[in-house]
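Researcher: Going back to the complex we discussed earlier. I've cleaned up the inputs and rechecked each line, so this should be the final set. Can you rerun the prediction on the complete assembly and write out the structure?
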Amino acid sequence: MAQQPAIEPMHQFMVHKIVDLPPVHIGGFALDLSITNSVVTMFAGALILILFFVLTARREIVPNRGQALAESLYNIVDRVLVGPIIGRGGKPYVPYIFTLFLVILVLNLMSGVLAIGNVGGLDLTFAVTAQLAVTATLAVLTFFSVFILGFVKHGPKFVGIFAPSGMPKVMLIFMVPIEMLSYFVRPVTLAMRLFGNMLGGHVVMSLFGSFVVALGIVALSGGVATLAVIPSALSFGMIVALTGLELVIAVLQAFVFAALATVYLNEVVNFGHGH
Amino acid sequence: MEPHAAVATVIDFAKSAKLIGAGLAAMGMIGAGVGLGVLFGSYLQAAIRNPAGAASQQTMLFLGMALTETMGLFAFVVSLIILFGS
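Model: Rerun complete. Updated structure for the full complex:
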């Protein structure tokens, strides 16, 4: 009977260097700027986005498919997210939310759509957004940009964001720490949401793939064990269903990240007054 | 009938504790499942009563779904950390 390969669902997330560059020393810190598989995937994502822009940024009155796709993506950010949530004052921030949305969308979809790069022992497709470092960077960037923007726009009285209006002074003593805690946990939840969704999806898909192989090897040993082909085929069907779910979640998580960034931005832009 | 030799079994407490802990942590997803069911159920109830107003709240529906799903994912990630973290 053939040797069963070990079931290691977490192996696909290992970051390994492709081009080893010497570390850069900046005032005591040593930055390791080597080209890893994660970096290559991010370059590929950036290239895809640039190509998409170059190919579809047109001004035809009657759009072709590429322009229609680009316009509907822009519509999602402009008319569905920023417009209803922030209002007129949100126009300057649409480029950032749009970029955020597209980056996460492309990186999420690459890990699902290009899964063919992982068959047969190849390790070409890497799930970038399943790395906590990447999602934490995006979350911290978004959160601190919004936080600092609050102080830039409204000055020191922006700390009023921690004291919800219309609250009796007595309750402020213990509401302000709670509000501060729930405010500063936002980058954590932003990072963990995207990370957990992508990690969970890929781990489960890898597990079901391992089931297909393991059950197939059991079925090859002949006799009654040939019946193991049935759960092997069922696991394969499960992978198909999971890939569909993964694609939905990829788009949805990009949307939700952008939506939450818009909501946090709204608290800053419309601070002190409603729409 | 010959007596079989007594075999000393060594229990790897660390590994079994990890496995039990991971299983317990994954039970946190029960709450997320219940929450998602309640969320979509209320949306459907309201949508069937007022179909015209349903489309305007679709954005909030997906936002609420993702926020609720996050809590289940926290439980899942904690479970993975317990299982695979060194």
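Model: Worth noting: The first helix of chain B runs from residue 13 to 26.
Researcher: Good, that matches what I expected from the previous run.
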